[in-house]
Protein backbone atom coordinates (compact mmCIF):
# COMPACT_ATOMS: atom_id res chain seq x y z
CA UNK A 1 0.00 0.00 0.00
CA UNK A 2 0.97 3.61 0.54
CA UNK A 3 2.84 3.26 3.85
CA UNK A 4 6.42 3.31 2.53
CA UNK A 5 8.81 5.73 4.17
CA UNK A 6 9.23 7.54 0.86
CA UNK A 7 5.50 8.21 0.37
CA UNK A 8 5.03 11.32 2.43
CA UNK A 9 1.75 12.63 1.08
CA UNK A 10 -0.89 12.72 3.79
CA UNK A 11 -4.65 12.44 3.44
CA UNK A 12 -4.92 16.16 4.16
CA UNK A 13 -2.49 17.01 1.39
CA UNK A 14 -4.29 14.80 -1.12
CA UNK A 15 -7.68 16.25 -0.30
CA UNK A 16 -6.16 19.69 -0.72
CA UNK A 17 -5.15 18.60 -4.18
CA UNK A 18 -8.76 17.64 -4.85
CA UNK A 19 -9.58 21.21 -3.99
CA UNK A 20 -7.12 22.29 -6.68
CA UNK A 21 -8.94 20.11 -9.17
CA UNK A 22 -12.16 21.83 -8.20
CA UNK A 23 -10.54 25.13 -9.09
CA UNK A 24 -9.69 23.85 -12.54
CA UNK A 25 -13.31 23.15 -13.39
CA UNK A 26 -16.52 24.45 -11.89
CA UNK A 27 -17.89 23.27 -8.56
CA UNK A 28 -21.08 22.20 -10.33
CA UNK A 29 -19.03 20.07 -12.70
CA UNK A 30 -17.33 18.39 -9.74
CA UNK A 31 -20.69 17.64 -8.12
CA UNK A 32 -22.02 16.28 -11.40
CA UNK A 33 -18.97 14.06 -11.72
CA UNK A 34 -19.36 12.84 -8.14
CA UNK A 35 -23.00 11.91 -8.53
CA UNK A 36 -23.14 10.73 -12.12
CA UNK A 37 -23.58 7.12 -13.12
CA UNK A 38 -20.41 5.09 -13.69
CA UNK A 39 -18.80 5.76 -16.99
CA UNK A 40 -15.98 7.72 -18.51
CA UNK A 41 -16.28 11.47 -18.14
CA UNK A 42 -14.05 13.88 -20.03
CA UNK A 43 -11.14 15.54 -18.25
CA UNK A 44 -11.45 19.10 -16.98
CA UNK A 45 -9.06 21.34 -18.87
CA UNK A 46 -6.67 20.20 -21.60
CA UNK A 47 -5.89 16.54 -22.25
CA UNK A 48 -2.67 15.48 -20.52
CA UNK A 49 -2.11 11.97 -21.67
CA UNK A 50 -3.70 8.57 -21.12
CA UNK A 51 -6.25 7.74 -18.45
CA UNK A 52 -4.51 6.47 -15.31
CA UNK A 53 -7.64 5.52 -13.35
CA UNK A 54 -11.41 5.98 -13.33
CA UNK A 55 -13.45 6.41 -10.15
CA UNK A 56 -17.18 7.14 -10.21
CA UNK A 57 -16.93 8.27 -13.81
CA UNK A 58 -14.07 10.66 -13.16
CA UNK A 59 -10.99 10.21 -15.35
CA UNK A 60 -7.55 10.70 -13.71
CA UNK A 61 -4.58 11.82 -15.82
CA UNK A 62 -1.07 13.16 -15.23
CA UNK A 63 -2.64 16.56 -14.67
CA UNK A 64 -4.17 15.25 -11.44
CA UNK A 65 -0.91 13.67 -10.27
CA UNK A 66 1.03 16.84 -11.05
CA UNK A 67 -1.42 18.93 -9.01
CA UNK A 68 -0.60 16.78 -5.95
CA UNK A 69 3.17 16.80 -6.46
CA UNK A 70 3.39 20.51 -7.29
CA UNK A 71 3.82 21.56 -3.65
CA UNK A 72 6.03 18.60 -2.64
CA UNK A 73 9.79 19.14 -2.11
CA UNK A 74 12.02 18.12 -5.03
CA UNK A 75 13.43 15.20 -3.02
CA UNK A 76 9.94 13.71 -2.65
CA UNK A 77 8.98 14.32 -6.28
CA UNK A 78 12.15 12.52 -7.30
CA UNK A 79 11.11 9.39 -5.41
CA UNK A 80 8.03 9.04 -7.61
CA UNK A 81 10.24 8.42 -10.62
CA UNK A 82 10.25 4.84 -9.36
CA UNK A 83 7.49 2.94 -11.27
CA UNK A 84 6.12 1.16 -8.20
CA UNK A 85 6.02 4.32 -6.14
CA UNK A 86 4.26 6.16 -8.95
CA UNK A 87 1.70 3.37 -9.26
CA UNK A 88 1.09 3.48 -5.50
CA UNK A 89 0.50 7.23 -5.70
CA UNK A 90 -2.09 6.86 -8.47
CA UNK A 91 -3.79 4.07 -6.52
CA UNK A 92 -3.91 6.20 -3.38
CA UNK A 93 -5.38 9.16 -5.26
CA UNK A 94 -8.08 6.92 -6.69
CA UNK A 95 -8.86 5.47 -3.26
CA UNK A 96 -9.13 8.91 -1.71
CA UNK A 97 -11.51 10.05 -4.44
CA UNK A 98 -13.67 6.98 -3.80
CA UNK A 99 -13.69 7.86 -0.09
CA UNK A 100 -14.71 11.42 -0.98
CA UNK A 101 -17.59 10.18 -3.12
CA UNK A 102 -18.78 7.81 -0.39
CA UNK A 103 -18.69 10.59 2.22
CA UNK A 104 -20.91 12.68 -0.05
CA UNK A 105 -23.23 9.76 -0.79
CA UNK A 106 -24.04 9.13 2.87
CA UNK A 107 -24.67 12.83 3.52
CA UNK A 108 -21.61 13.72 5.61
CA UNK A 109 -21.90 17.27 4.30
CA UNK A 110 -24.91 17.69 6.60
CA UNK A 111 -22.91 16.78 9.71
CA UNK A 112 -23.11 19.84 12.01
CA UNK A 113 -19.52 19.42 13.19
CA UNK A 114 -18.30 19.30 9.61
CA UNK A 115 -20.30 22.38 8.68
CA UNK A 116 -19.01 24.30 11.71
CA UNK A 117 -15.39 23.45 10.92
CA UNK A 118 -15.95 24.25 7.25
CA UNK A 119 -17.41 27.65 8.16
CA UNK A 120 -14.38 28.37 10.35
CA UNK A 121 -12.01 27.42 7.55
CA UNK A 122 -13.91 29.61 5.11
CA UNK A 123 -13.62 32.59 7.46
CA UNK A 124 -9.89 32.06 7.81
CA UNK A 125 -9.40 31.75 4.06
CA UNK A 126 -11.55 34.80 3.38
CA UNK A 127 -9.49 36.94 5.77
CA UNK A 128 -6.26 35.50 4.42
CA UNK A 129 -7.00 36.35 0.80
CA UNK A 130 -8.50 39.73 1.64
CA UNK A 131 -5.32 40.74 3.44
CA UNK A 132 -3.11 39.07 0.83
CA UNK A 133 -4.78 41.04 -1.96
CA UNK A 134 -4.41 44.30 -0.05
CA UNK A 135 -0.70 43.74 0.57
CA UNK A 136 -0.16 42.75 -3.06
CA UNK A 137 -1.40 46.17 -4.12
CA UNK A 138 0.90 48.10 -1.78
CA UNK A 139 3.58 50.17 -3.51
CA UNK A 140 6.85 48.31 -4.01
CA UNK A 141 9.94 49.31 -2.04
CA UNK A 142 11.99 51.52 -4.36
CA UNK A 143 15.66 50.93 -5.09
CA UNK A 144 16.41 54.42 -3.80
CA UNK A 145 14.80 53.59 -0.44
CA UNK A 146 16.96 50.47 -0.14
CA UNK A 147 20.13 52.44 -0.98
CA UNK A 148 19.18 55.18 1.48
CA UNK A 149 18.69 52.66 4.30
CA UNK A 150 22.08 51.10 3.50
CA UNK A 151 23.80 54.50 3.68
CA UNK A 152 22.02 55.58 6.86
CA UNK A 153 22.73 52.32 8.72
CA UNK A 154 26.30 51.71 7.64
CA UNK A 155 27.32 50.38 11.07
CA UNK A 156 24.72 47.61 10.78
CA UNK A 157 26.51 46.22 7.75
CA UNK A 158 30.08 46.14 9.00
CA UNK A 159 31.89 42.93 8.18
CA UNK A 160 33.95 41.80 11.23
CA UNK A 161 37.69 41.44 10.94
CA UNK A 162 38.92 37.87 10.53
CA UNK A 163 42.32 36.31 11.20
CA UNK A 164 43.72 32.77 10.97
CA UNK A 165 45.84 32.14 14.06
CA UNK A 166 48.55 29.69 15.17
CA UNK A 167 49.97 29.41 18.66
CA UNK A 168 52.77 27.97 20.73
CA UNK A 169 51.58 27.21 24.25
CA UNK A 170 54.00 27.18 27.20
CA UNK A 171 53.48 27.10 30.99
CA UNK A 172 55.18 30.38 32.01
CA UNK A 173 55.88 33.87 30.74
CA UNK A 174 59.62 33.30 31.10
CA UNK A 175 59.39 30.22 28.90
CA UNK A 176 57.39 32.19 26.33
CA UNK A 177 60.10 34.87 26.16
CA UNK A 178 62.77 32.22 25.72
CA UNK A 179 60.86 30.64 22.82
CA UNK A 180 60.29 34.09 21.29
CA UNK A 181 64.07 34.71 21.31
CA UNK A 182 64.64 31.46 19.42
CA UNK A 183 62.09 32.48 16.78
CA UNK A 184 63.67 35.89 16.36
CA UNK A 185 67.07 34.24 16.12
CA UNK A 186 65.93 32.31 13.06
CA UNK A 187 64.27 29.10 14.29
CA UNK A 188 61.35 28.10 12.09
CA UNK A 189 57.87 28.36 13.56
CA UNK A 190 56.82 24.76 12.83
CA UNK A 191 59.98 23.22 14.31
CA UNK A 192 59.81 25.44 17.40
CA UNK A 193 56.13 24.69 17.89
CA UNK A 194 56.70 20.92 17.63
CA UNK A 195 59.55 21.11 20.16
CA UNK A 196 58.22 23.52 22.80
CA UNK A 197 54.41 23.77 22.61
CA UNK A 198 52.55 21.98 25.41
CA UNK A 199 49.35 21.84 23.30
CA UNK A 200 49.98 18.35 21.98
CA UNK A 201 46.74 18.42 20.01
CA UNK A 202 48.25 20.67 17.35
CA UNK A 203 51.94 21.09 18.10
CA UNK A 204 52.89 18.77 15.23
CA UNK A 205 50.78 20.75 12.74
CA UNK A 206 52.18 24.20 13.43
CA UNK A 207 49.84 25.06 16.29
CA UNK A 208 46.92 25.99 14.03
CA UNK A 209 43.92 27.19 16.09
CA UNK A 210 41.65 28.50 13.35
CA UNK A 211 39.92 31.82 12.76
CA UNK A 212 39.15 34.56 15.26
CA UNK A 213 36.95 37.59 14.57
CA UNK A 214 36.70 41.13 15.92
CA UNK A 215 33.11 40.62 17.09
CA UNK A 216 33.91 37.74 19.47
CA UNK A 217 36.36 36.90 22.28
CA UNK A 218 36.28 33.21 21.42
CA UNK A 219 39.36 31.42 20.16
CA UNK A 220 39.03 27.90 18.70
CA UNK A 221 40.37 25.27 21.14
CA UNK A 222 41.14 27.85 23.85
CA UNK A 223 37.70 29.33 24.45
CA UNK A 224 37.43 32.93 25.67
CA UNK A 225 40.79 34.63 25.22
CA UNK A 226 40.32 38.37 24.56
CA UNK A 227 44.04 39.16 24.74
CA UNK A 228 44.75 36.70 21.92
CA UNK A 229 41.92 38.05 19.75
CA UNK A 230 43.10 41.64 20.27
CA UNK A 231 46.71 40.73 19.42
CA UNK A 232 45.62 38.92 16.23
CA UNK A 233 44.53 42.27 14.77
CA UNK A 234 47.46 44.33 16.07
CA UNK A 235 50.25 42.32 14.51
CA UNK A 236 50.65 41.87 10.75
CA UNK A 237 50.41 38.68 8.71
CA UNK A 238 53.48 36.49 9.34
CA UNK A 239 54.46 38.32 12.56
CA UNK A 240 54.72 36.77 16.01
CA UNK A 241 53.17 38.38 19.08
CA UNK A 242 54.64 39.14 22.48
CA UNK A 243 53.78 36.58 25.21
CA UNK A 244 50.00 36.49 25.88
CA UNK A 245 48.16 35.10 28.89
CA UNK A 246 45.02 32.95 28.71
CA UNK A 247 43.13 31.05 31.37
CA UNK A 248 45.13 27.91 30.65
CA UNK A 249 48.73 29.04 29.90
CA UNK A 250 50.98 31.51 28.08
CA UNK A 251 50.99 31.78 24.30
CA UNK A 252 52.87 33.16 21.34
CA UNK A 253 50.62 33.63 18.32
CA UNK A 254 51.26 34.05 14.62
CA UNK A 255 48.73 35.31 12.04
CA UNK A 256 48.64 33.56 8.66
CA UNK A 257 45.72 35.51 7.13
CA UNK A 258 44.12 38.75 8.21
CA UNK A 259 41.10 40.69 6.96
CA UNK A 260 40.35 43.94 8.76
CA UNK A 261 36.90 45.31 9.57
CA UNK A 262 35.04 46.34 6.42
CA UNK A 263 31.59 46.79 4.97
CA UNK A 264 29.36 44.15 3.44
CA UNK A 265 28.88 45.09 -0.23
CA UNK A 266 25.45 46.54 -1.02
CA UNK A 267 24.61 43.67 -3.39
CA UNK A 268 25.15 41.16 -0.57
CA UNK A 269 22.75 42.84 1.85
CA UNK A 270 20.18 44.29 -0.57
CA UNK A 271 17.73 41.34 -0.22
CA UNK A 272 17.89 41.60 3.58
CA UNK A 273 17.27 45.34 3.54
CA UNK A 274 14.40 45.04 1.08
CA UNK A 275 12.76 42.34 3.23
CA UNK A 276 13.19 44.51 6.33
CA UNK A 277 11.61 47.55 4.65
CA UNK A 278 8.75 45.44 3.33
CA UNK A 279 8.11 44.19 6.84
CA UNK A 280 8.06 47.74 8.19
CA UNK A 281 5.73 48.82 5.39
CA UNK A 282 3.38 45.91 6.04
CA UNK A 283 3.33 46.59 9.78
CA UNK A 284 2.50 50.25 9.22
CA UNK A 285 -0.23 49.26 6.77
CA UNK A 286 -1.61 46.70 9.22
CA UNK A 287 -1.76 49.29 12.02
CA UNK A 288 -3.60 51.71 9.74
CA UNK A 289 -5.98 48.99 8.57
CA UNK A 290 -6.83 47.92 12.11
CA UNK A 291 -7.46 51.53 13.16
CA UNK A 292 -9.83 52.06 10.23
CA UNK A 293 -11.72 48.83 10.98
CA UNK A 294 -12.16 49.88 14.61
CA UNK A 295 -13.89 53.05 13.44
CA UNK A 296 -15.93 51.42 10.68
CA UNK A 297 -17.31 48.61 12.84
CA UNK A 298 -17.37 50.33 16.22
CA UNK A 299 -14.87 47.96 17.80
CA UNK A 300 -14.82 48.47 21.59
CA UNK A 301 -12.86 46.48 24.16
CA UNK A 302 -13.80 46.24 27.84
CA UNK A 303 -10.53 45.72 29.76
CA UNK A 304 -12.17 45.13 33.15
CA UNK A 305 -14.42 42.41 31.73
CA UNK A 306 -11.48 40.83 29.89
CA UNK A 307 -9.47 40.75 33.10
CA UNK A 308 -12.32 39.11 35.01
CA UNK A 309 -12.95 36.60 32.21
CA UNK A 310 -9.29 35.63 32.17
CA UNK A 311 -9.05 35.32 35.94
CA UNK A 312 -12.56 34.96 37.37
CA UNK A 313 -12.98 35.63 41.11
CA UNK A 314 -12.77 32.47 43.19
CA UNK A 315 -15.26 31.59 45.90
CA UNK A 316 -14.07 30.64 49.39
CA UNK A 317 -14.88 27.02 48.51
CA UNK A 318 -12.70 27.28 45.39
CA UNK A 319 -9.84 28.69 47.45
CA UNK A 320 -10.26 25.94 50.06
CA UNK A 321 -10.05 23.27 47.34
CA UNK A 322 -6.94 24.96 45.94
CA UNK A 323 -5.36 24.98 49.41
CA UNK A 324 -6.19 21.31 49.92
CA UNK A 325 -4.45 20.46 46.64
CA UNK A 326 -1.23 22.25 47.61
CA UNK A 327 1.61 19.76 48.15
CA UNK A 328 3.69 21.76 50.64
CA UNK A 329 2.15 21.76 54.16
CA UNK A 330 3.49 25.23 54.93
CA UNK A 331 2.17 26.65 51.66
CA UNK A 332 -1.14 24.98 52.46
CA UNK A 333 -1.26 26.66 55.88
CA UNK A 334 -0.54 30.02 54.25
CA UNK A 335 -3.46 29.53 51.85
CA UNK A 336 -5.77 28.48 54.71
CA UNK A 337 -4.77 31.60 56.65
CA UNK A 338 -5.61 33.71 53.59
CA UNK A 339 -9.13 32.26 53.47
CA UNK A 340 -9.65 32.95 57.18
CA UNK A 341 -8.43 36.51 56.75
CA UNK A 342 -10.54 37.32 53.66
CA UNK A 343 -13.74 35.43 54.48
CA UNK A 344 -13.89 35.13 58.30
CA UNK A 345 -17.63 34.27 58.43
CA UNK A 346 -17.75 31.77 55.56
CA UNK A 347 -18.14 28.03 56.20
CA UNK A 348 -14.93 27.39 54.22
CA UNK A 349 -13.06 29.79 56.51
CA UNK A 350 -14.19 27.76 59.54
CA UNK A 351 -12.91 24.59 57.91
CA UNK A 352 -9.67 26.36 56.94
CA UNK A 353 -9.14 27.52 60.54
CA UNK A 354 -9.47 23.90 61.74
CA UNK A 355 -7.13 22.67 58.99
CA UNK A 356 -4.38 25.05 60.12
CA UNK A 357 -4.17 23.22 63.45
CA UNK A 358 -4.64 19.83 61.80
CA UNK A 359 -1.75 20.42 59.33
CA UNK A 360 0.59 21.66 62.05
CA UNK A 361 -0.19 18.59 64.16
CA UNK A 362 -0.43 15.71 61.70
CA UNK A 363 2.02 16.73 58.98
CA UNK A 364 4.55 19.14 60.45
CA UNK A 365 4.44 17.65 63.98
CA UNK A 366 4.68 21.21 65.30
CA UNK A 367 2.53 20.57 68.36
CA UNK A 368 2.92 24.00 70.03
CA UNK A 369 1.72 25.72 66.84
CA UNK A 370 -1.07 23.16 66.45
CA UNK A 371 -2.23 23.64 70.05
CA UNK A 372 -2.31 27.40 69.60
CA UNK A 373 -4.31 27.08 66.37
CA UNK A 374 -6.87 24.65 67.86
CA UNK A 375 -7.37 26.78 70.98
CA UNK A 376 -7.96 29.82 68.78
CA UNK A 377 -10.39 27.81 66.66
CA UNK A 378 -12.44 26.72 69.69
CA UNK A 379 -12.47 30.25 71.02
CA UNK A 380 -13.60 31.90 67.77
CA UNK A 381 -15.97 29.15 66.53
CA UNK A 382 -17.60 27.66 69.63
CA UNK A 383 -20.73 26.60 67.72
CA UNK A 384 -18.90 24.76 64.91
CA UNK A 385 -19.47 21.04 64.42
CA UNK A 386 -15.70 20.72 64.32
CA UNK A 387 -15.15 21.91 67.91
CA UNK A 388 -15.42 18.35 69.25
CA UNK A 389 -12.78 17.23 66.74
CA UNK A 390 -10.54 20.12 67.76
CA UNK A 391 -10.88 19.15 71.42
CA UNK A 392 -10.10 15.53 70.59
CA UNK A 393 -6.98 16.68 68.71
CA UNK A 394 -5.85 18.69 71.74
CA UNK A 395 -6.36 15.70 74.03
CA UNK A 396 -4.63 13.16 71.76
CA UNK A 397 -1.99 15.26 69.98
CA UNK A 398 1.21 13.33 69.39
CA UNK A 399 -0.17 9.97 70.56
CA UNK A 400 -0.53 8.52 67.06
CA UNK A 401 -4.27 7.99 67.51
CA UNK A 402 -6.36 8.41 64.32
CA UNK A 403 -8.51 11.56 64.49
CA UNK A 404 -12.20 10.55 64.37
CA UNK A 405 -14.50 11.87 61.68
CA UNK A 406 -11.62 13.13 59.52
CA UNK A 407 -10.76 12.34 55.94
CA UNK A 408 -7.47 10.70 54.95
CA UNK A 409 -4.30 12.43 56.05
CA UNK A 410 -4.00 15.83 54.43
CA UNK A 411 -7.57 15.85 53.10
CA UNK A 412 -8.99 17.53 56.17
CA UNK A 413 -12.32 17.14 57.94
CA UNK A 414 -15.41 15.68 56.37
CA UNK A 415 -18.64 17.65 56.52
CA UNK A 416 -20.21 15.13 58.87
CA UNK A 417 -20.81 16.09 62.51
CA UNK A 418 -18.10 14.47 64.61
CA UNK A 419 -19.37 12.66 67.76
CA UNK A 420 -18.10 14.08 71.05
CA UNK A 421 -15.05 12.40 72.55
CA UNK A 422 -17.04 10.65 75.37
CA UNK A 423 -19.24 8.74 72.95
CA UNK A 424 -16.18 7.80 70.91
CA UNK A 425 -14.54 6.23 73.96
CA UNK A 426 -17.50 3.88 74.38
CA UNK A 427 -16.95 2.38 70.92
CA UNK A 428 -15.04 -0.91 70.71
What are the key terms here?
single chain; 428 residues; alpha+beta; Serine Threonine Protein Phosphatase 5, Tetratricopeptide repeat; 3 domains; two-stranded antiparallel ribbon; 10% strand; extended
What does this structure look like?
The longest helix has 32 residues, at 266-297. The strands form 4 sheets. Strands 5-4-9-8 form a 4-stranded antiparallel β-sheet. The radius of gyration is 40 Å and the shape is extended. Helix 7 crosses helix 11 (266-297). With 428 residues, it is α+β, with helices and mostly antiparallel strands. The chain has helices at 11-24, 27-35, 62-69, 74-79, 83-105, 112-136, 143-152, 173-184, 189-196, 226-232, 266-297, 303-310, 316-325, 329-342, 347-362, 367-380, 387-396, 421-425, and strands spanning 53-55, 58-60, 158-159, 162-170, 208-213, 218-219, 223-224, 244-245, 250-259, 262-263. Helices cover 54% and strands 10% of the residues. The protein has 3 domains: 11-110, no CATH class; 161-260, Chitinase A, domain 3 (Roll); 316-425, Serine Threonine Protein Phosphatase 5, Tetratricopeptide repeat, CATH 1.25.40.10.
Write the layout of secondary structure elements.
Blueprint: H1 11-24, H2 27-35, E1 53-55, E2 58-60, H3 62-69, H4 74-79, H5 83-105, H6 112-136, H7 143-152, E3 158-159, E4 162-170, H8 173-184, H9 189-196, E5 208-213, E6 218-219, E7 223-224, H10 226-232, E8 244-245, E9 250-259, E10 262-263, H11 266-297, H12 303-310, H13 316-325, H14 329-342, H15 347-362, H16 367-380, H17 387-396, H18 421-425
Antiparallel strand pairs: 1-2, 3-10, 4-5, 4-9, 6-7, 8-9
Amino acid sequence: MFLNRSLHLSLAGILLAFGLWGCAGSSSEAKKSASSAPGVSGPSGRDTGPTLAIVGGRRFTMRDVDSVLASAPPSIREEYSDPEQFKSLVERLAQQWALFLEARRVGTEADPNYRAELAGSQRQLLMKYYYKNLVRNLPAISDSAVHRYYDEHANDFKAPGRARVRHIQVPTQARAREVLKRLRAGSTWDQTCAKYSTDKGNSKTGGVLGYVTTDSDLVPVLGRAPSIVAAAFKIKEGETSEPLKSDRAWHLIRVDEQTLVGEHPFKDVEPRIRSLLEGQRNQQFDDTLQDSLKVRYGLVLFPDSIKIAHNPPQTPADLFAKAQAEVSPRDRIELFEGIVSRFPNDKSAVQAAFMIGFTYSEELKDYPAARKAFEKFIREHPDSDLVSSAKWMLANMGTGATPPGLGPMGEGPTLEIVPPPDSLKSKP
